[in-house]
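Exercise: predict the structure of this protein bound to adenosine-5'-diphosphate.
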Amino acid sequence: MKYFEKLLIANRGEIAIRVMRACRELDIETVAIYSDADKNALHVKYADEAFHVGEAHPSKSYLNMERILDIAKKSGAEAIHPGYGFLAENYRFAKLCLDEGVTFVGPRWKTIKAMGSKIGSKQMMREAGVPVLPGTEGGISSIDDARKIAAEIGYPVIVKASAGGGGIGMQIVNDEKTLEEAITGSQRIAKSAFGDATVFIEKYLVKPRHIEFQVLADEHGNAVHLYDRECSIQRRHQKLIEEAPSPIMTPELRERMSKAALRVAEASDYSNAGSVEFLYNQDNFYFMEMNTRLQVEHTITEIITGVDLVKQQIAIAAGESLTFEQKDLSIRGHAIECRINAEDPLNNFAADPGKIVRYRSPGGPGIRMDSGIHMGYTIPPNYDSMIAKLCAWDSTRPEAIKRMRRAISEYIILGIKTTLPLHYAIMNNQAFVEGNTHTHFLQEEHIFSTLERYKRDEEARMQTLAGSFDQGKKVAAITAAVNMYMQQKKE
Ligand code: ADP
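Solution:
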């Protein structure tokens, strides 16, 4: 069964390759697009055809809807997969595709539009009986109203951009004195980042967990959930480590949360793959938002369920019905994802793009690597700093953690700073090992002082490992590196 002959991937990097891999397995030809900064990128080499889309700046390339549709038509692509980021949650693009007769691999544009408004979607879920955090029901109309509502729900509160994403425009407010400043600041950021200055207030939970549910729905009214993911380890409100399932999940909680997630999908007339995000605190959970796209962390759900989410997305977009029901799904083992970003964790996660002078990715049992990088590749400064995703699976959580430590110890990236040493520190952190994570984990767990100690040794380890691969002394070097870490762990 061939869903499409040819599909265009309106994205770059690891996610473009991820989608192309599914296409290759489905015998669908692939069309890549690339900007001036991506002429030598791996996704261009992987695709069957590649078209230049414009200048490096995203607005001139990966966000240029008309140009991308032109390329789809010129190349004969019948469908477009947007990946995540860029145009993935842009309802205008989904609508344009529909108007132009090209299949958009994602939900209906009306659903994307409704869920793109945090205010609108919260309102919709309130009406559908899904728990939401107390706060303003609409946008903030005046500072006086905002003061009144904040006093009612009690500080701390959080000011958020209705059109927001990527943690941009969020401000935590601890008392009335800073409320006005936070609102005007957030409005200014929202206006320039999203073209919409609407902001709202909700109760700020001090140490919640971020738990989300993956859902899949076809265009014929069938929907399933593919269990939960815990995404509490974050920097700047953005995820750094995800795991599936959540370490605190119980059958009873899963029953309650998955029901709510499916209610969200139903209320929004959902089709295709999506994620329903909740904040969890003291046995209560609250709908935060729905991401109407494939998520970065879809990998760990694929690992524990055995379902290829990208293939499902493509089948659904082609009008197919889901071929399985909820009762056919189950969880096998535990999976963890580490986001490898070209950033310096010891310098406030400052981006560190540049040339990768040595590279060797880990492998072996239970390891999945999704990346768009390779030895000699120069990471352009124009895009997101996430360059690879390292996933580890094993039959239990403690074993998955050990496997992740082993994989990190094999991983060599020289020439740029990355989040790899931070991941190693977290994998060895007692609170993490015990599953005690929350969204303030990084601030509280003194990870950075541990990391400071690791830093010099990490650099030495990279050099030793890199050298040893040239000299064929791999095993000894890896053993030495692992022993070195074990030593540090004991300290
Ligand atoms: P974005 O769409 O910008 O990514 P989200 O609404 O998904 O923003 O929130 C991202 C993260 O911000 C959450 O995972 C959580 O860590 C934090 N956050 C958001 N709202 C709250 C809240 N009301 N209380 C506590 N933390 C919050």
